[in-house]
């Protein structure tokens, strides 16, 4: 629960926009969620939903020239990260909060060997000798499944999957309290993706850290996370445990997502895609951003909607969520 001692991260009503040549793009529009200590929360949504922008705001890495936080807070252990000056935030980033980015090919410095890059991350945040840092770098390489003898090699000498393992080693070398993994397997071959996800899950447990996993893959979330937050057009529109959201999705958009995924347990001739597109971030509607695509929409959906508490931590930002739940329980949906 927000504000409890078990809560590590608490994002509240986060609003972020970007200044562009075409005007102001509203990328995040009131995102709220909590992450408990030791938990893995999946942040799910299609491209443009605002997932990565939310992560960059948490890390204090929004582009200074164009990105702007217009409202809300991001409490980490009760401290608002959005109000921290540059230097305290720099110390916290890497030490207490780390991030694994989408593309390992661009996340590593091509002119430094991988051992130096891991050791540099450690020495930037801890008082430790060069020799001790290098030894820890070798330990981290072995922890992610790479022989410590390869510490003297450069990024171009590693495959994509191995590069991502190095990036994970850099992110975890300081044993952070929070790991943000932003689509960590997107740039990898399918055969390597499962190995990397299994590695992240194992190291998360060994290091005793919490994780915010950003993805568009519901299968990955089902295997990895305890809770899930579904994002649409810059807002969390449904959140709950894996069982609640996967077994009983109550926002029409979430229900549509599952309807567009193949189910090997049923014989289906065609999938049921969601008609239409996400609204233009330069001109968002006042009410529900999904209303124009929703078969349950009512005239009242054109007004701003609040989150509906469905019990047990299950939430949906839909006026009709409680009605849909009741009708489904009665066999009407």
Folded structure, characterized:
This protein has 11 helices and 12 strands. The strands form 2 sheets. Strands 6-7-8-3-9-10-12-11 form an 8-stranded mixed β-sheet, sandwiched between helices. A 4-stranded antiparallel β-sheet has the order 2-1-4-5, covered by helices on one side. The chain is of the alpha/beta class and 333 residues long.
The geometry reads as globular
Q: Helix/strand/pairing class, anyone?
A: alpha/beta
Binned, the helix content reads 25-40%
First and last CA, distance:
31 Å
**Which consecutive residue ranges, at least 5 long each, have pLDDT under 50?**
none
The total of beta strands comes to: 12
Q: Would you list the SSEs in sequence order as H and E?
A: EEEHEEHEHHHHEHEHEEHHEEH
Strand order across the biggest sheet? 6-7-8-3-9-10-12-11
Beta-strand residue fraction = 15-25%
- Using the CA coordinates, give the radius of gyration: 21 Å
Query: How many helix segments?
Result: 11
Task: Characterize the biggest β-sheet.
Answer: 8 strands, mixed
Global mean pLDDT: 91
Structural features:
alpha/beta, 4-stranded antiparallel beta sheet, 11 helices, single chain, 32% helix
Give the structure's gist in a few sentences.
With 333 residues, the chain is an alpha/beta fold.
């Amino acid at each position: 629960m927000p504000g409890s001692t078990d809560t590590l991260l608490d994002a509240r009503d986060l609003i972020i926009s970007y200044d562009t040549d075409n005007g102001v793009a509203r990328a995040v529009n009131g995102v709220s969620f909590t992450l408990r200590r030791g938990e893995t929360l999946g942040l799910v949504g299609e491209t443009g939903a605002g997932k990565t922008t939310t992560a960059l705001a948490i890390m204090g890495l929004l582009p200074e020239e164009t990105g702007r936080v217009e409202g809300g807070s991001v409490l980490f252990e009760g401290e608002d990260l959005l109000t921290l000056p540059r230097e305290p935030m720099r110390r916290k980033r890497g030490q207490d909060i780390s991030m694994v980015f989408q593309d390992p090919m661009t996340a590593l410095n091509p002119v430094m060997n991988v051992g130096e890059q891991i050791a540099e991350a450690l020495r930037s945040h801890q008082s430790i000798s060069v020799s001790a840092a290098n030894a820890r770098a070798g330990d981290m390489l072995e922890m992610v499944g790479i022989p410590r003898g390869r510490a003297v090699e450069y990024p171009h000498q590693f495959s994509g999957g191995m590069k991502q393992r190095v990036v994970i080693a850099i992110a975890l070398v300081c044993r952070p309290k929070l790991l943000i993994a932003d689509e960590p397997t997107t740039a990898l071959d399918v055969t390597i993706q499962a190995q990397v996800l299994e590695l992240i899950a194992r190291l998360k447990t060994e290091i005793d850290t919490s994780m915010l996993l950003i993805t568009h893959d519901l299968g990955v979330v089902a295997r990895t996370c305890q809770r899930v937050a579904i994002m649409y057009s810059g807002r969390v529109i449904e959140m709950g445990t894996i069982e609640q959201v996967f077994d009983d999705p109550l926002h029409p958009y979430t229900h549509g997502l599952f309807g567009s995924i193949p189910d090997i347990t049923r014989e289906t001739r065609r999938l049921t895609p969601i008609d239409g597109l996400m609204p233009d971030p330069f001109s968002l509607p006042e009410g529900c951003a999904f209303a124009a695509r929703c078969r349950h929409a009512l005239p009242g959906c054109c007004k701003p909607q609040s989150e509906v508490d469905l019990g047990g931590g299950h939430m949906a930002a839909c006026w009709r969520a409680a009605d849909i739940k009741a009708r489904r329980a009665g066999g009407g949906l």
